Here is the input.
Amino acid sequence: MTPPANATFTVFQGFQRRAAGPLLEAALAVRAANAAGALETLLVFDDATGKVVDLDLRGTDADIAARLAPPGSDPASVEADLAPRPRGRPKLGVVAREITLLPRHWDWLAAQPGGASVVLRRLVDEARRAGASPQQARAAREAAYAFMSALAGNLPEFEEASRALFAADRAGLEARMAAWPQDVRAYALRLVDGPSASSETMGGPQ
Here is the structure.
């Protein structure tokens, strides 16, 4: 498959998120886990649709990169994608920029749990959700359900969580998923928020 240049994917090993990023990065993460003798099922999810992606992992890393590279891409950039990556969690794309607020705004932010940055990000995400069109909201719910069906179908209260999802009952959805593994719960909520939701929903602020 040749996904859009800005498409992102998430790899789950069992109920644990293993990697996230472009399709090539996801494919190489699956290949590395298989080479290490992973015992749990590895699934790659399209962040835009929540659906499982089938990958052809035959050959070398370079072979895989060549298959997944967009048509006409620079071979040098493909080789760069194969360079060893540092250990630890991936960067979350946080960008620091100056904002100007009145003193009363800063006072209010300082009194909120988590600090100003966490509160501002949450407010922006809530505004984004509120401004989504009905079509976008429906597509996000369908993506979340596709993921939940593939990975969480046997988890407690799956049916109840699905009903809350399609009723747009976020509080009910979160309550029904409370006993689910953290990564599964976080990714499902990220899909509900839409494909452009910040990856911070997978692990909280850094």
